[in-house]
Amino acid sequence: MKRTLYTLYIQSLVLLLAALALSSCIRDDLSQCGLNIRFSYTYNMYEAEAFSQEADWVNLYVFDSHDRLVMQERHEGVRGNEDFQIRIPLIDAGEYTLTAVAGSSDDEKADFLIPEMATGDPKSKLTFQAPASGSDVMDKKLNSLLIGTYEANLDGLLQTVTISMMKCTHTIRVILMPLQGGAAIDPEDYEISIEDKCGILACDASPLGENRIVYMPYFQEGSSASNSSVTGASPDDGSRSFQNTRAEISSAVIAELSTSRLMYDFEPRLKIRDVASGRELMDINLTWYLSLSEIEEHRAEWSDQEYLDRQDEYALTFFFNNGLWFQNRIIVNGWVISMTDVEL
Predict the structure, then answer these.
(1) Taking a C-beta distance cutoff of 8 angstroms, is the pair 31, 67 a contact?
(2) Residues 33/85, Cβ–Cβ less than 8 Å
(3) CA–CA dist 152, 138 (Å, integer)
């Protein structure tokens, strides 16, 4: 009986000390309670920490176990601060979902549309939409967007967690070049677009159903060089056989497009159209095409989707001659893709 009473006494004493510690934490020493939140962006091609190089600001949303918003904060001054973190001094014990959204803040670029959130709002309300016009067309350069979530089980005492971020914006650079040296190419002759179905992202960066969007270039112009070092080829007899010549390729069309997250299974289409005739010169599955540039070392450890999420910039070079696109000479990010010639 004495042992039972002694055991109960010890248990009660432990509970009392814990309660006093929490009370002291809340009333006197806030350094012993709360939550420190760090942010990391290593989900890139180099697997290197780059959060403070990519973000100017960060929004933090805290949802309870019922997926209702209980707290939100916005912080500026992230860029260049490698020790950036958010401190929440008081938060009750329990299970929470921490959602972080960060990005750049260049006034000359467009921002994703993010709804205003209020305490009690459901997590499903938090979405990120590319700023397309009423015709679902977006021709703006986007500020970068990074999204991350963390499932936290908090005990009321001081904890430190790290939210891993993923970049959800891409830059696609398209270069059109004539195969034949000396030929000229005019940027006004071509309409370049990307048709996708991933216009809206959920708070975990997954696509929110299928939402059509058409990305158009925010930049498109011609480029010429009088002293180009690239030599082209010319037909020797009017046929499709070519021989090397000293004629220089000195004309190109360059276009750049911004996109939201690219989903491999959604099969967005890269299209090139001849403006004068309305003829579609190219229509390819863009994500499959981009995945061809993934080198074998990465292919062994990353899925096609992971490669697309890690790589945020692509440069595609297309060579052509009189409507014949030489796909055996298409270059993606410096890698030559060997394919069969296709006449479109």
Answers:
(1) no
(2) no
(3) 36
Backbone angles phi and psi of 299, in degrees to 5? -60, -30
The residue length of the chain stands at 344
Copy the structure tokens of residue 229.
Answer: 């070092």
The position carrying tokens 């703006």 is: 140
211 residue type, one letter: N
Token pair 């430190």 is at which residue? 160
Angle at 254 between CA 138 and CA 333, to 5 degrees: 95
- Per-residue pLDDT of 43-85, as tens digits, reads 999 999 999 999 999 999 999 999 999 999 999 999 999 999 9
Q: How far is CA 304 from CA 170, 219, 290, in A?
A: 15, 28, 9
Buried b (16+ CB within 10 A) or exposed e, 307-341: bbbbbeebbbbbbbbeeebbbebbbbbeeeeeeee
Cβ–Cβ under 8 Å, residues 41 and 54: yes
Q: CA triplet 161, 167, 173: central angle to 5 degrees?
A: 165
Nearest CA to 310 among 92, 46, 116? 46
3 state DSSP class of 328: helix
pTM over 0.85: no
Using H for helix, E for strand and C for coil, what is the string for 6-57? HHHHHHHHHHHHHHHHHHHHHHCCHHHECEEEEEECCCCCCCCCCHHHHCCE
C-alpha atoms less than 13 angstroms from C-alpha of 262 in its C-beta half-sphere: 34
Give CA–CA dist 47/70, Å, rounded.
33
- For residues 33-43, give the mean pLDDT: 94
